Amino acid sequence: MLQSVFTRVTERKQLIQDILETSAQKDFYTTFTPSTHWPFKDATSKKCRLLVLDSSFNPPTKAHAKLLETSLKAYPTGYFDGSLLLFSTNNVDKTLTGASVLQRAQMMEMIAMQCPSTAVGFTPHGRFMDKAKYINSWFAETHASSQLELYFIVGYDTMIRLLDPKYYNSTSVKDALTPFFESCRLICADRGTEDVGFWVKTYNTFDRDLIQRIQLDPITSQFSSTLAREAIQQRHTDQLNTILDPNIVAFVNENKIY
């Protein structure tokens, strides 16, 4: 698996670069899809539920893959048609440092190839409402007669930012997010120790079926990209192998990232 995934992505480097360059002005595009009928399970489906993991992937860790796995298990078997690893090239809270967009696309693809029905996508938009809008627009261009539901996986910190009034000017958070929740849901990954008051307030504002909560195991939940970068910089090989997939470790070492 290591040689196969690593080799396939390495061989696709120029193709990925070409897609990134020719699609740079698009609001949403994919650099990798697992099948010709993705995001549907098959070519006959009319309704599509897409699980979206939006992150910086700098680099992708085992926690990213675990988030997909845990989210899938939180719903009935076969509930989702496919999954999407999404990177926002213009994040509202972060500037691009570390791995380049191309390198992230390659690493994201290595993870996607090992997860069922998972694609890799990019958008220049940082706000969730805009991401949802343009993914829906992309979907409607080729599947006008079908319905798309997006389920965004977010961390607790991202959830706090998403519900922060400072991003919505004079509009209330509920009013601002109502259009978003017409076709989208949120899955929040927390550690079970977060502010109880925050969740009471959140569920007093939004129905529980709009925001699902999941938890990673205590060890995997600590596998952050920041911790991975520190392990790389400090040459803590054993720790790095615990945090990252072997393909990502090989890619980081070969390209001398971080």
Automatic annotation (TrEMBL):
Q: Which SUPFAM superfamilies match?
A: Nucleotidylyl transferase
Gene Ontology CC:
cytoplasm; nucleus
Q: Which GO terms describe its molecular function?
A: ATP hydrolysis activity; nicotinamide-nucleotide adenylyltransferase activity
Q: Which InterPro entries match?
A: Cyt_trans-like, Rossmann-like_a/b/a_fold
Q: Which residues form the Cytidyltransferase-like domain?
A: 54-230
Protein name in UniProt = Cytidyltransferase-like domain-containing protein
